[in-house]
Amino acid sequence: MTLQDISARLSAAERAANRAPGSVDLIAVSKVQPDSRVRDVLVEGHRSFGENRVQEAMGKWPGFRDEFAGVTLHLIGPLQTNKARQAVELFDVIHTLDRPKLAQTLARLAQERGQSPDVFIQINTGAEPQKAGILPESADSFIAEVRALNLPLLGLMCIPPVEEDAAQHFEMLAKIAARNDLSGLSMGMSDDFETAVAHGATHIRVGSAIFGARISPH
Ligand SMILES: *Cc1c(COP(=O)(O)O)cnc(C)c1O
């Protein structure tokens, strides 16, 4: 697969779901990929990228940004509170707001800096103990809490359990978003992004299908 193949499949999925062309943001997940592959995708003109570790992103993106204008960088992995400052300085969008303490830290940084990355709240739709995210039953109250802190909240994000049908998780996420008047839905990866688009995804996070297999996945 290449960026072109995935873009074509995304366009077809948008059409099939009666979504406007280009309405879904294709985030190319470049974690652990060699710089040369990331550069190829930048040279092709793509500008939306996702990373899941702050440290790793700090190593490669300032340089790429000097070279390629207009990059939008998304943090899609867990954010430790002690890395929050570095994260807000580097990323345009944080998809993994998953606890009150992090919300408070991001709000404090936003006040101090006079700006903030946009945020998605991560929902643990499968209630998996090992997975980050707000439990579905606590979603409404946490959304209210984040709004009260004046963080620029775009919507909700989920990573469905590997063994389960992703569609039911996408549906649940879309329902929680709809009843809270949130339009952003960050859901869908290499194996299920078309299903996610059918369920209303506004941001899909696609890594291996664009770049090839990761050498050491995380
Ligand atoms: C790695 C990762 C992706 C991309 O996964 P692929 O299966 O390679 O498309 C998407 N979302 C998150 C949160 C990830 O960590």
TrEMBL record:
Please give the cofactor(s) recorded in the UniProt entry for this protein: pyridoxal 5'-phosphate
**Any GO molecular function:** pyridoxal phosphate binding
- Give the keywords, sorted: Pyridoxal phosphate
On whether Iron is a keyword of this UniProt record, the answer is: no
Query: Is Repressor there in the keyword field?
Result: no
Give the N6-(pyridoxal phosphate)lysine positions (modified residues).
31
Classification via InterPro entries: Ala_racemase_N, PLP-binding_barrel, PyrdxlP_homeostasis
Which NCBIfam families does this one have? Answer: YggS family pyridoxal phosphate-dependent enzyme
Q: What does this protein do?
A: Pyridoxal 5'-phosphate (PLP)-binding protein, which is involved in PLP homeostasis.
Q: Which HAMAP family match?
A: PLP_homeostasis (MF_02087)
Q: Quote the protein name from its UniProt record.
A: Pyridoxal phosphate homeostasis protein
Instruction: Give the organism, scientific name.
Output: Roseicitreum antarcticum
